[in-house]
Each structure stands twice: as C-alpha cells, then as structure tokens.
Amino acid sequence: MEEKVMEAVNAEENICVPENLIYQRPETLLDVPMHYCPGCAHGTVHKLIAEVIDELDIQGKTIGVAPVGCSVFAYQYLGVDFSEAAHGRASAVATGIKRVMPDKYVFSYQGDGDLAAIGTAETIHTCNRGENLLIIFINNGIYGMTGGQMAPTTLPNMKSTTSPYGRDVQTMGNPLVMTDLIKQLPSVYYITRQAVNTAGNVRKAKKAIKKGFQYQDLNKGTSFVEIVANCPSNWKMTPLQSNKFLEDQMFPYYPLGDIKVPEKEVK
After folding, report:
1. What's the order of all strands across the beta sheet hosting 257-260?
2. pLDDT at 22
3. Backbone angles phi, psi at 134, to 5 degrees
4. What is the CATH code of the structural domain delimited by 27-260?
5. Cα separation of 139 and 116, whole Å?
6. Which comes out higher in pLDDT, residue 169 or 4?
7. What whole-number distance in Å separates Cα of residue 105 and Cα of residue 53?
8. From the CA atom positions of the chain, what is the Rg in Å?
C-alpha cells in the first residue's frame, strides 16, 4: 500500500514540472475560497485582473478601490493595496489616490447599482475630468448584494424584486447606458464593453483590462471597461440559463465591442 502511495506521489511530481504546466493561479489572486454565487462572473473578472497585473509586473504599484455591493469583496481576493469607498464614491476616491500618487496604477471595481445609480455623478465627473485611472464596470442589470432590486441598467420588462411585473419604461424610465453618456466626453481615452461568458469573450475582456492599465502610462485620460455579466441568483436562473439570457437579451441592448479607442494602440 505504501509503495502505491509513493508511486502516485512521484507520478504527480513528474506531471507538475514546468514544461508540463498549462495554467497556474496568478500570484495576485489570493489562494482563498471565493464565496460568490455559482455561475457569477465576478470570480472570472478577478482572475483576469490578477493575470494582467502579474503579466505587467505591477502588483506592488497597483491600488484598487471597491465600494459597497458584491464588488466590495474584491479586496479579499486580489493581492494589491485596496481602499473601500462609500456606496457610489469609488471613482472619487480613486481620483484622490491617483492625484496623490500619480505613479501608481489605480482602478475602481464597481457594479451597476453603484456606478450607474448613487454613483452616477461621480462617474460622469471623473470621466469628464479625464482622471488617469481605470474604471471596471460590472453590469449585470440588477442589484446583486441587497436583494435583486431593479437597477438603472435593468432591461425593459425585466423582472426584479422592485419590478415584479417587469420594468415599465413609461413609469420607471429606460435603462441607463453609461457608455452612451461618457463617450461624448473628450477626456475619456478608452471605452469598451466586453463579457466573460465564453472562452473567446474572456480573452477579449482580458485584453481590454490590460489596455486599461497600460493606458495609464500615457496619461491621456480615463479608461472605462464595462463587463456585461450575469447574476444567476437574482435573475432566478441556473448559470447556463443566465448565460443564454446574456446572449438573447443583454447583448442586444448592450452590444459588445470597442466604443472609443485611441488612434494609436499600445502594444
């Protein structure tokens, strides 16, 4: 029995040699269990941020800001300096950090209930000033942490705990498309909308996040990366059903792709 155990250990050691390594956890992604709901996109986006930080070798130079909501958990999983902000104020706090420490790579990580509701003013004015930082915007069309209420980004006729019969645009207004607002501001340098529901989309989202960090070296203005995400728990769907809802309902309203790009791309 002991010989078989040793054989298994030796076999595992032989497999885990560098030339056989396909993937490993990014150093910036802390080795702790995540407690997001099954199928939630937050974990995937965290992994991409960690990979980018590792690849750019900026872990010691990066500062994140996370406000109230599911996004607040980011500081538990990413091994960089973090500041928690009051609800909606992440971009304002990030502005202060970047101005005091302009050599740091600063990003805010915000949900739609935060960035597009109580934080609308902070978001617009941060972008209008062209603050040299990255805003990562997770848009799942609903308030995730507080019980599934209707968010500014909730689709027409989409049900939530505060719109149980669906969002009525005549009384509740149309969904707020943040990129349509900020793309008119000349001081916003880079705007893109991506997703992480497929392997191909994950690669595109990672590339977008990487550009958002790299563009800070140019000091040309604000980078805004929106991730259209799912929320299976509050959508009352399985993860597979929520991915289909993304493709059938969310993407037509929030189409993926670059919205504003610099004339010269970074390498």
Report:
1. 81-84, 62-66, 105-111, 134-139, 222-228, 188-195, 257-260
2. 73
3. -110, 130
4. 3.40.50.970
5. 9
6. 169
7. 10
8. 20
